[in-house]
Amino acid sequence: MKTDQVGETRAVAGRPITLNALVKQAVRQPCELVIVSCDKEIYLAEAIVNGEMFWVLDAKQNRLQTRSLAAMKRALAPVAHTQAHLKHQSTYDEMIGNRSVDQSASMTLPIVIHGRDATVD
Fold it and tell me: What is the pTM assigned to this prediction?
């Protein structure tokens, strides 16, 4: 899977990775972090490594989920990364009865996660 634009992946498919495994892997190869805002109070984490998307899991093998952006930033702070983004999906089309056929209803914004930012030359 390749990235087309910042934080936008060509395919929806991904593989799971635990947060602990991501922290260890990112020491060798920093990743791109994406925090997905699914609802006004639900945030999920994704990581893009070499163009491949991973869903970040917690220690119980569930999707890493928080109720605030600040809590997600704290959870991801130990992960070495080159860049981070907040991706918001709009559900407006579905609310009015239209089928959403593409990712055009998403908005991606760069964010800062204090912690292990990697420098890129």
Answer: 0.76
